[in-house]
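User: Sorry, what's this?
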Amino acid sequence: MNPYNQRGVTLIEVMIGIAIAGIIFQIILSFYIFGSRAFNLGEVQSDLQNKTRIAARSLTKELRYAKELRILPEVPDPITSDWGYIFVNDDSFIEYRDKDSSRIILNGSGNSGFQISFEVKDSPRILCFKITCSSGTRSYEIESEVLLLNLDTIDGSDNGTVVGFKL
C-alpha cells in the first residue's frame, strides 16, 4: 500500500463545507424571520380592521332606529334621563350607558383602543361617524354614515365624541 494514496477529507475541505452550510443556514433563517415578521404585522392590521368594522356595524345597528338623537362633547354626569349614550370610555372601549346600566359594545383587547367622533354633514337625518382603532404604531380608520329612519333632525352640536339617543 502506498501511504500517499489514501482516500479521505482534509481539514480544509471540512472547514469549507461547514462554512458553506453555515451560509445556507443563515439565508434560510433570514427568510424565515422576514416571513414571520411580515405575517405578524399582517395579522395585527387584519385584527384592527376587523375590530373597526365590527364597531361601525354595531354603531349603525344601535342608532339606526333612534327616535331622538343628540351629539355631545362629553357624557352627562349623572345620567338622569331615559337617554342612552355611546362613547369611548377611559379604557378606550366603546361603551353604551344609560341611567340604569352600562355595557361594553366592543373592547380593544390587548393594547388596542378606539377613538370615535360624530358629525352631522349634509342631511339632518344622516349621522356621520369616524372610528379609529389603534394598536402600538398601527391604526385603521373607518368613516361611515347612518341614515336615521325615525328622526327628522339631530339636536345638540354639529360634532362631538358622544352620541345620546332614545329608541
In short: DSSP finds one helix and ten strands in the chain. The beta strands are 68-72, 84-88, 94-97, 102-106, 112-120, 126-135, 138-147, 155-156, 159-160, 162-166.
